[in-house]
Design a protein that fits this description.
single chain; alpha/beta
């Protein structure tokens, strides 16, 4: 499957500020195939009980994907007692969350997952949480929080067949923290990471560690934590992974991090901070989807086009009101990025200031 555009998922993030802070996005139109915007779920679509199904009543996920042997552990009674906020201490409960996300969560639903103990998945085939239907394009994303509370998931194995592959497959607005993955084995066809396959938007990830092997033959977008990502920020995160069973250990958190190092950053544009805290830039032609990128306290809060979409004229000034729209207090970083060789890369100097 071709990689999909981040635009639809990021548009949803902008419509749901309670889940993504003050972040807003106006650009990010690239070569990724567009997703369909979801409608709001009705009560009949969300209020349902979970029962073990006969083959004729399988969900779209079970029909489309190899659901992995982990699904043998699903506790349907437990799922009917909890809904959207999961405190997990056993493989059975963790498998049940996968079933919840991939069969029920067809429309945007905020989910919280907290580990209450270390979990050993050795001997089972894991199924990524979050996927996209081939026929309709409807996403069943994991959106919300995964908090390991200092615990470790050991022995997660994904044997292949998924095009967004990791502990979480596809996600919009995912925050992950205080969790470790060790002895992981991830095999897939596209967008591979131990923690997440494709993660669009989301809050800062903190204190996340991943160790294992990633099988990406044929070569695809892969990173130790996340394969394909947009606008993710990391703090105190690290990884140690091998590729295709090799001996070399890599430490790239994301595919973007690896490709940025391979392509290299060239600061073509020069940004200047003005006395009124607006920022001006010079102009050079030939850059695709050039945009302003703003972070506050290490988290992305604004992605905005640096070109007027109606006239095609360059937007040479980013006003202070747009930089500080969600409150002035904080440390800001501002730069320009552009879509180069399949990813967004910084193409200017970085302006930093504190208010």
């Amino acid at each position: 499957m071709k990689k999909r555009s981040a635009m639809a998922a990021l548009l949803i993030a902008a419509m749901l500020p309670g889940l993504s802070g003050c972040k807003t996005t106006e650009k990010k139109q690239n070569t990724r195939q567009s997703r369909k915007i979801r409608h709001t779920a009705t009560a009949s679509e969300t209020e349902e009980s979970f029962d073990k199904k006969e083959d004729k009543n399988l969900s779209a996920w079970e029909k489309q994907n190899d659901t992995g042997s982990i699904m043998q552990l699903v506790d349907y009674d437990w799922l009917n007692r909890v809904d959207g906020a999961f405190r997990v201490s056993t493989p059975e409960q963790l498998a049940s969350v996968v079933y919840y996300i991939n069969t029920r969560n067809a429309f945007f639903t905020y989910t919280e997952l907290y580990l209450e103990a270390d979990i050993d998945l050795t001997g089972y085939d894991w199924a990524p949480m979050g996927w996209v239907e081939f026929a309709s394009g409807n996403p069943h994303e994991y959106a919300g929080v995964i908090d390991g509370q200092g615990h470790t998931i050991k022995g997660m194995k994904i044997k292949g067949g998924y095009d967004t592959c990791g502990f979480v497959g596809y996600s919009s607005n995912l925050s992950m923290r205080n969790i470790s993955f060790v002895d992981a084995e991830v095999t897939g066809t596209d967008c591979l990471g131990i923690c997440g396959g494709e993660v669009i938007g989301g809050e800062k990830w903190t204190n996340v560690y991943a160790q294992g092997n990633i099988n990406n033959d044929p070569p695809s977008e892969q990173g130790g934590l996340v394969g394909w990502s947009t606008d993710l920020c990391f703090e105190d995160c690290s990884c140690d992974y091998t590729l295709n069973g090799g001996s070399e250990v890599f430490h790239y958190l994301t595919y973007k991090e690896r490709r940025t190092e391979e392509i290299g950053i060239e600061e073509v544009f020069t940004l200047v901070l003005n006395d009124d805290y607006s920022i001006t830039r010079d102009d050079f032609p030939g850059y695709h989807n050039l945009g302003w990128h703003v972070e506050r306290n290490g988290e992305t809060i604004l992605e905005a086009s640096a070109v007027d979409p109606e006239t095609g004229e360059p937007i040479l000034t980013l006003e202070k009101s747009r930089i500080t729209f969600c409150g002035e207090s904080g440390t800001y970083s501002v730069y320009l990025d552009a879509f180069i060789d399949g990813i967004y890369i910084r193409v200017s100097n970085i302006i930093e200031f504190t208010l």
